[in-house]
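[audit] Reproducing an earlier prediction to check determinism. Same input, same settings, fresh worker. If the tokens differ from the archived copy the diff job will pick it up downstream; this log only records the rerun itself.
[audit] input (194 residues):
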Amino acid sequence: MTTLNSSEETFDTRKSDVMLTIAFRIKDYTSVCAVTVVLLFFMLLTHLEPWLPRAKVILKTLSLAYSDMLYFLILFLVIFFAFVIMSNVYYGADLPAFASAPVAMQTLFLMLLGNLSFLNQMIILSQPLTLAFLILFLISMHFILLNIITAFISKSYIDVKAQETMKRSKPDILAAHWITRLSEMKCRSPKKKA
């Protein structure tokens, strides 16, 4: 059995500290790369605009709905954090999935995505309150708030399509106007005598 002296232990601790630092830097690097890929995708959409008219419609729709979606995000976060605090206060002492506000936020977000694995533990604590909480949470978050954002985007899409239709129809209106004017001018022109 070999024993480590203090210099070897210090070397191993420094080695593990360096490895941890490298691991955290790699994690930060991958996070930055993920954000960069998303930004590059949006830049690609802007550069594809001349070749793909549909990309232009999508970008205009998102830019038109931007302010509405920002206000929606604020409303969504306020209501979501109210449910986070409520679940943390009621279930936090008994269930590890709601022990702190960040953990409760993660749990509720997973519930929004359909992961209801915590439901049995919640029902054991209090069935009536859990059912009321679940119904209010799912109805307010899924059916009401997510339909509101769908309505914002749909309205913006309709507005963009109407603008595109107006742009296309203006030349047709002008052409019809000039054809009418020319035909009127022909009718008014003096007829040649034979």
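[audit] rerun output stored. Observation attached for the diff report: The chain has a mean pLDDT of 80.
[audit] end
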